[in-house]
Amino acid sequence: MPFTANRQFKKTPRLFSSAKGMYYTSVDGRQVIDGSAGLWCVNAGHGRPEIASAVERQLSTLDFAPSFNMGHPLAFDFAERLAEIAPKGLDRIFFTNSGSESVDTALKIALAYHRAAGQPTRTRLIGRERGYHGVGFGGMSVGGMVANRRQFATHLPGVDHIRHTHDMARNAFAKDQPDHGAELADDVERMVALHGADTIAAVIVEPVPGSTAVLPPPKNYLQRLRELCTKHGILLIFDEVITGFGRLGAPFAANFFGVTPDMMTTAKGITNGTVPCGAVFASRQVHDGLMVGPDNAMELFHGYTYSAHPVACAAGLATLDIYKDEGLLTRGAQFADYFRDALHSLKGLPNVVDIRNVGLMGAVEVAPRKDGVGARGYDLMVDCFNNGLYFRMSGDSLAMSPPLIVEKKHIDDMVSILGDAIKRVA
Ligand code: PMP
């Protein structure tokens, strides 16, 4: 199993057999609230019949179409619909099958873009400490989660990292965006001073790091990052695999924070988690930069057998219909304050050292125990699962990101189960 202590899991398996709306059903028949929208992806809730029938219809109409040199109309319909909801100017779409593939695709597009623009020395990729960009060699390399890199001993050359913004000394228990840390964006200047702007292709960050436990950006941080990248001709990539499709109460984090990157990577919520799919959104400038050479020359030597798979497109179109009909891409905004206040009500419970939130993303962090980082978080995750709440743990941070169909009573239940678990496990 991926990212799992397999031998431990074998002793105490946790298995779901079905899901509907806000709830999973465990194999022993218990209802478990989905506190993390699966893995930050089931934004419209589970078991949506509209998606199921679109998938079924598609499978019996056109099950596959070659993605190279051939196509099918659904791919273009889906791209058009995505372009409609994209942040202004980011309306050129390339399809992938996952977040990891979206990241590797965006990084390669950045390299190709500079090369086409006559700046082939711009090959350096800048990530950020505590970033998670999937598990491909590109994503792992720009990623900043130590454990995800150390085991493999090597990664892409020519990669550097700016500092993360998690600063409990200054920002613990900050509500929404923390006040301190915008100056950390100036690390881009240090990278430029160290390596030279003419060697740097792109900076990639998650607007809100999710897998490293929900770290809302300090006020003005992303704005500063944008300014510096523009100043130095560096492409800015937002990894919106988690924050895309309504998680913050706006269609994308770029809308929410009012900062437009040059490219955006997405996956997960693009099909409500039902069929593997991802997409890179690029600016016209990036797109047009690649449309060079004779018409019969390929513009991008990159792609997947399953890019714009018809079944994924059908699932994605049905998902976008639901998002639109139910106003889900902005619904989170109505619940963000309630969610924030509910999470912060856990302040003062034993071992709770920080609580963070933005939109419908939040985390409660507990102090590490002597027997290792993540041990207390694991015990809390198991206790909550046994008492009817699933959430994604990240070390000793317990991350909450309910489906966007959430109601106040679900938030109350999530926080009450978690609060009881924290008292019990203490
Ligand atoms: N980027 C971010 C920000 C993610 O959160 C994830 C997955 N959690 C990925 C990339 C990788 O996505 P996938 O697992 O679909 O490859």
Automatic annotation (TrEMBL):
Signal peptide: none annotated. The keyword Electron transport does not apply. Keywords: Aminotransferase, Pyridoxal phosphate, Transferase. Its cofactor is pyridoxal 5'-phosphate. One of its GO terms (molecular function) is transaminase activity. It comes from the Bacteria. Belongs to the class-III pyridoxal-phosphate-dependent aminotransferase family. This is Aspartate aminotransferase family protein. It comes from Bradyrhizobium jicamae.
